[in-house]
Amino acid sequence: MNGKNNSSTFEIGVVGLGLMGTSIIVSLLVSGHPVIGIAPLPSDMDGALDRIQSQMNHADEAGLLSENVDYYLKRLHLTEDYSKLKSCSLVQECVTEVIEIKTEVYLKISQNTESTAVIATNTSAIPISVLQENVNLPSRFIGIHWAEPAYMTRFLEVTKGALTDEKIANRVLSLARTWNKEPTYLKKDLRGFVTNRMLYAVYREMFAILENGEASMDDLDKAFRYDPGSWMTYMGLFKRMDQLGLSDFKEIFENIFPQLDNSQTVPTTMQAVVKVQGKGINNGKGLYNYTKEEAIKWEEAFKDFNHEIFHLAAQYPEINT
Amino acid sequence: MNGKNNSSTFEIGVVGLGLMGTSIIVSLLVSGHPVIGIAPLPSDMDGALDRIQSQMNHADEAGLLSENVDYYLKRLHLTEDYSKLKSCSLVQECVTEVIEIKTEVYLKISQNTESTAVIATNTSAIPISVLQENVNLPSRFIGIHWAEPAYMTRFLEVTKGALTDEKIANRVLSLARTWNKEPTYLKKDLRGFVTNRMLYAVYREMFAILENGEASMDDLDKAFRYDPGSWMTYMGLFKRMDQLGLSDFKEIFENIFPQLDNSQTVPTTMQAVVKVQGKGINNGKGLYNYTKEEAIKWEEAFKDFNHEIFHLAAQYPEINT
């Protein structure tokens, strides 16, 4: 991978054709890259092309394409054959979160690519530095963590492992900007990465509020939707503090920090859901319950919302920097 | 205050004509109420009407009005004379966060209203149960906490103090829905209230990440804008967990909770800002620095963003309930 990127000749491999993998493929195709999609298991091929087509149509409806859908699909090759990765300068892994399986995938990738090819993982659970230990030439290994739907969020988290070459990290950050992303750079290999880690702090607190009977689940969700939801797409939290004028924060931190929840254990509400094998909207049993119709309605409306928030966010990229 | 609300004859008092007070007045006028605005100090009159007019125009541009601006302004009476509150069924206090000052205001309100009038505070710092102790007939005292700009966010936090009559709380919740709000009900008098408390958990964690050198301030803000910012207006955090399918959360909580920051002290970054009397965009010195032009540009763009996110949020009120 070199500094100059001409996306039309810059071939990228994606290993793993699950929900996330196909969504990443669509994002890369939309950015003009030829893409080789690898199915690590034959069954991974099932439905992959259908899903990519449907996501492509979604991207088209949202006005993200400059050519027609077929133009992009012609630049995609789905296969089980790792040797097709040969001319890829970057290979993005997004297989299941099991170290042994990922390690095997990295071996196959490095056996079938140039030594200069960057290998990236989409993991959100395993430290980059741990995965890196099992990669041939670990300095070219890096975390590129996407959010769903990958082609329609500006979020991208780039994480440097202990052995990752900083130059590689910088190149990936530049490349990501050509994908219309606003990449975040995580300089150390923080457990839980950046947004997730911050969100876990909220999860801990909100389960505590719920379980203390102070507010209902629905009210906690509403409060977040209508308060932070009314400014978060415009500004992050440090900026929000500046906007509010900062004056009371020191005192509030002094008063509130000692009262925040510091639990280290899984909230009982969550344990109860796990016990009944709740999979949220996937099986209707979750923190809330859903009929099949409700789950569908809810996912459909989210697609519409995606369009809108993506375009809204795109109007305010620079004002904050 | 009775159960049936006809806003055109339901008079509401607002005591305190600062930024928040005028913004609340605009919200109540837009909802059709006649409003008595009380200036607790003569100087509170300065600029209050100008601000209300300008906020009214903002609401008008955003398409929130069914009549012209003058129609609403005719239903407003600004005065220093508490006796004008006589026929108000609800009086909202939004003066400075000093218990003694608030207590004095409550005394004047109760001396000038019927004993059935509800008295509400906009405090975000003092527990309702504490303020309530000094109110004549404390069962009709309640927290109604607004977010800025009050006429253009759906957020409203209703907090029951230890002595508040639950029937009063339910009436306020019903009333708030006629104001186009999605009120959150806080059943116990939680320090920091709901959203703030959840956000303080994030603040604590993000300052820790920053001060450990793991990610920059700008990157932390970007991550929040583009990840949670891409779904938060659509769904709260419990719903988000359900959407993600819940499967890995138990394990992640077990791993991450013990690693989250549990500090009880003010972060050093914040202490440094307090030391130089940083007031964020108000004086250009904050967590970030701002020229006067940048501060203005940034506030102007936020007004535009407000319109857009308000209307976007309004399209998805029911799907989640």
UniProtKB/TrEMBL annotation, chains A, B:
One of its GO terms (molecular function) is oxidoreductase activity, acting on the CH-OH group of donors, NAD or NADP as acceptor. The record marks 145 as: Important for catalytic activity. Residues 192-290 form the 3-hydroxyacyl-CoA dehydrogenase C-terminal domain. The lineage of its organism: Bacteria, Pseudomonadati, Bacteroidota, Cytophagia, Cytophagales. Keywords: Membrane, Oxidoreductase, Transmembrane, Transmembrane helix. Signal peptide: none annotated. This is 3-hydroxybutyryl-coA dehydrogenase. InterPro entries: 3-OHacyl-CoA_DH (IPR022694), 3-OHacyl-CoA_DH_CS (IPR006180), 3-OHacyl-CoA_DH_NAD-bd (IPR006176), 3HC_DH_C (IPR006108), 6-PGluconate_DH-like_C_sf (IPR008927), 6PGD_dom2 (IPR013328), NAD(P)-bd_dom_sf (IPR036291). It comes from the Bacteria. It comes from Cyclobacterium amurskyense. GO terms for biological process: fatty acid metabolic process. PROSITE patterns: 3HCDH (PS00067).
